[in-house]
Write a structure and sequence with these properties.
The protein is mainly α and 116 residues long. The chain is built from 5 helices and no strands. The longest helix is centred in the N-terminal third of the chain and has 27 residues.
Length: 116
């Protein structure tokens, strides 16, 4: 999709918006891959009722998102693609914590914060 994204954008929205930068498409692709990969583990954990750790990160991640956006916009002065990049970075825990939690709960029988 990334290779033919400009052609797809032309079919989808026409020439009204103009050329969408490649970096915007790439950052959105990174977020989509991260989100889909992390959701594989989140769905398993949600179905089994292991919600506490995910809930904690869901409360923390919006604050991380706002801080990253502020840094990107005010300090580094990035373009519009900083928003999906900030979403990607603020939700990166899903790629790190969710697989670890799934492994520890289902294969190692861990308790505590992992299994609550």
């Amino acid at each position: 999709m990334l290779i033919i994204c400009n052609w797809i954008y032309g079919i989808w929205i026409g020439d009204e918006i103009g050329n969408i930068p490649f970096m915007m498409s790439f950052v959105v692709l990174m977020y989509a891959v991260e989100n889909n990969s992390a959701n594989l583990f989140a769905v398993i954990l949600n179905g089994a009722g292991y919600l506490k750790l995910q809930f904690i990160f869901c409360i923390i991640s919006p604050f991380i998102f706002v801080m990253i956006c502020y840094f990107f916009i005010k300090v580094i002065r990035l373009d519009a693609y900083c928003i999906p990049l900030a979403i990607f970075l603020s939700n990166i825990y899903g790629l790190i914590i969710s697989p670890i939690q799934t492994y520890l709960v289902f294969f190692k029988g861990k308790q505590g914060i992992w299994a609550s």
